[in-house]
Amino acid sequence: MLNIQEEFDEHERKGTWRMEFQKINIESHQYDYSTTEAKKEVNKPYNRYRDVSPYNHTRIVLCNGTSDYINASLVTEKRANRRYILTQGPLPTTIGHFWQMVWEQKSKAVIMLNNIIEKGTRKCAEYYPVSPGSLQTIECEHTDLQVSILREDEHSFYTVRTLELKNRKTNESNEVLHLHYTKWPDFGVPKSPEAFLKFLHHVRQTGSLAEDVGPPVIHCSAGIGRSGTFCLVDTCLVLIEKAGHLDGVSVEEILLDMRRCRMGLIQTHDQLRFSYLAILAGARAILDGRGLVSLAREEGEEEAPPPLPRKLKRPHSPEEQDGSDVKTARQDDTNDVKSHDHDGNPSTSEMELRRRRREEKKRSLQEKVSEIRRAREPVGIPDKTSPPLPNCKLDQHPDP
After folding, report:
1. What is the Cα–Cα distance from 271 to 266, expressed in whole angstroms?
2. Which of 113, 185, 260, 316 has its CA 20 to 30 Å from the CA of residue 195?
3. Can you tell me whether residue 253 is helix, strand or coil?
4. Torsion sign across C-alpha atoms 308, 311, 312, 313
5. Which residues are catalytic?
């Protein structure tokens, strides 16, 4: 069995990255896992893409509301003691679902790997507040949750925000880190393995990936390409550090295991190749005793990460309400769109990519029109054309 370095060298020499990617696709397509919950008519409006659905057996289940559905999956790797929640970029109609999931799962961090707008196309709703000085707050309709921003720290290619997620009914609140990688193109790869590893090191230093806290919520646009790359690299580096060598850690096997939890993880052969590059760069630093922190310093002076968000707190009085500028997360009508091709066929992938871009431009226009309409409406009046979001005290129930 070849080790990771030998596999990488062989694919480079033979130019077989596309073939290896297609081999993984063919094998994972044989998985016979049900996605019936995602396909229900009532849940279809909550899916950003028609062909990216959570499996029934790993989907995150919301509770005690009008809907228990969100397009999100729990991805686990027992050997590395890692748990991740991978999800799509929130739609305007799922902002409440998203933050309920974060609250319910006791997640300490949200890891965002896309930008709101990419190449003129909206990839994600603006689900988090910006501009700490403005005291802006997002109040999720039909839930008791509101989100405000406490501080923001900008780095060269990522931004770290500290958010407060508050239950207005109980006055309980949690701080949640929002770690936003801003330089990762859709279907593409980061500028360099070292830049990505600096970000991964920062995420690890916050403690948000530890097994004694809730799983981090990780998303890009569909929650499979960039998100899958992040999880694959992190997991492989954990296993390499445990083993103390490259032997016995199979990138292909780990990726196939992860695809049993969420379909289509890693979307292109370029993302697969980049995963190997990042794993090897990180492994060299780990095995020679320098650690990922050394790669972070090579990219610039190391900055101390923010502390792990504090645990649940209760204000002294229920009157602890500020007069902040409230931005309501309104519900917009959305349509399903065609998205990702998983068969690895170059011509089919190009056709699907062009189709997806057309559909995304259409969706982006629809969302912009909806934003204009919302701006003309009184704040706080719910959109009665959309079903209400769930309102629950959060406690995940395993999916049968």
Report:
1. 6
2. 260
3. helix
4. negative
5. 220
Token pair for 105: 């799962």
Whether 224 has a binding-site annotation, put simply, is yes
Length in residues, the chain: 400
Q: Around Cβ 314, how many Cβ atoms within 10 Å?
A: 10
> What span, in angstroms and rounded, lies between the C-alpha atoms of 69 and 154?
34
What pLDDT, in 10s, does the model give residues 386-395?
Answer: 444 443 333 3
The 8 Å CB, 24+ separation contacts for 282-285 are: 282/193, 282/197, 282/200, 282/233, 282/237, 282/240, 283/4, 283/237, 283/240, 283/246, 285/197
Is 24 known as a binding-site position? no
Structure-block tokens of residue 311: 């645990």
Structural contact between residues 234 and 179, judged by C-beta atoms closer than 8 angstroms: no
Q: What is the pTM of this model?
A: 0.76
Q: In angstroms, rounded to a whole number, what is the distance separating the alpha carbons of residues 258 and 290?
A: 29
Task: Determine the residue type at 131.
Answer: S
Q: Which two tokens stand for residue 356?
A: 């997806």
Residue 319 CA to residue 284 CA, distance in Å, equals 54
Helix or strand (DSSP H, E) at 152: strand 145-154
Tokens of 160: 């770290």
The helix/strand/coil state of 313 is strand
Q: Quote the DSSP letter at residue 54.
A: B
Per the annotation, does 186 bind a ligand?
yes
Tell me which residue of 340, 344, 270, 349 sits closest to 17, measured CA to CA: 270
Residue 42: CB atoms within 10 A of its CB come to 11
Dist CA 354 CA 339 (whole Å): 9
Q: Over the stretch 220-233, which tens digit does the pLDDT of each residue have?
A: 999 999 999 999 99
HSE of 396 in the Cβ direction (CA atoms, 13 Å)?
Answer: 24
d(CA 338, CA 354): 10
Distance, in Å, from the CA atom of 172 to the CA atom of 190, rounded to the nearest integer, reads 38
Residue 48 token pair: 């950003």
Beta bridge partners of 164: 148, 175
329-375 pLDDT per residue, tens: 433 333 333 444 433 344 445 556 666 666 676 666 666 666 666 55
